[in-house]
Amino acid sequence: MSKPRIQKGLSYFTRFVRISGVFVVLLVVSNSQILSPTVSARSRAPLATLTFLATDPYASTPKQTPRGQTLWTLEAYNGKLYIGYGDWGANTGPIQIAPYDQATNSFSLEGTSQTQAIENYRALLGTLYAPAIDGHLFGTTNYAKRSPTDASWVDYDPENPPWHTFDMTSLNGTDLWFVGTEGVDAVAWRSLDGGVTWQSAPHTYSYGSTDETYYFIGNYNGKIYLQASPDECTSEVFDGTTWTTGPNLLPGCPHAELTGFRPVDFAGKMVYYDREASRFNGVSGVYVFDGTKVQTLSNTLAISIFNVDGNYLYGATSAGIIYRTTDLENWETLGGGGLANGD
Questions:
Q1: Are 167 and 120 in contact (CB under 8 A)?
Q2: pLDDT band at 187, cuts 50/70/90?
Q3: How many CB atoms lie within 10 A of CB 319?
Q4: Taking Cα atoms as reference points, which of 85, 93, 133, 134 lies closest to residue 112?
Q5: From CA 99, how far away is CA 13, in angstroms rounded?
Q6: Roughly how many angstroms between the first and final C-alpha of the chain, as a whole number?
Q7: Which of 296, 256, 252, 253 is nearest to 272 (CA)?
Q8: Per-residue model confidence as pLDDT tens digits over 51-81
Q9: Are 35 and 4 in contact (CB under 8 A)?
Q10: Is 134 helix (H, G, I), strand (E, B) or coil?
Q11: Of the candidates 198, 164, 200, which has an alpha carbon nearest to the alpha carbon of residue 184?
């Protein structure tokens, strides 16, 4: 059987990672396809044409809407690629968690989460977690957790009933946090024992009857950073004991489309991005926070997504041009491109 045609004109990058220490694997939206360059990430040569790897058999099912067939995220873990997909607006769950093994060119079903979509994975406390972006319809999950012993997945719902969970972290290596929304309030839940027991009430932010959400949680320099969208224009900072007010982490606030997504530490900074700008506007929505101020990553490069691997941060534009850096100032062009030109 011939391989599916890569639909360049309908594509944009949502996330990319490196697996097995060699290949930069790029995730592109095009009928649930995963694509990859054909050269080593260690090579300085320009990247070759993107090559089709596989179509996710669960994301591409007829029950999924076009948005539901979008592969929103990749996470390289234990030598496999964990994939997120789904349409939480159209309620197309539950979501099958079936990582892709590039060595065997196959998908293996590890479990099912009773959520309408998975758009994020976090490696925490020695295993992998999947925030349940919309578990409230099923009423059974805030997040799914992978068993480190047998690779099965179990849903957890400490919020009871769950609403929307967007991100997770651990501040000190033993606690566990998840953030999102409950009703019209932004909420952040914390467990001091890694998820065995939970605080009796969450940390919240409210703004009248407006729907507020913590879309991300930052763990930077020993502190937790939160900021609710769309109306909170200062951050909330937790040092392990006390909450204080911090700087605005979302330039342009207040704005309904500012969300923030997946903060990571790199080169002594907290780096994160506005996924709405990255996904749909084709402009740089990557932010860099140094503990005092926020700057937008170089608009000259127009990087719209990124991933950290070892000493490098890899960035990609909406056209598929790939760069990397060790310090967020000096960039090496790896090549790529051509996705915006159609086919």
A1: yes
A2: very high
A3: 18
A4: 93
A5: 19
A6: 21
A7: 296
A8: 678 889 999 998 889 888 888 888 889 989 9
A9: no
A10: coil
A11: 164
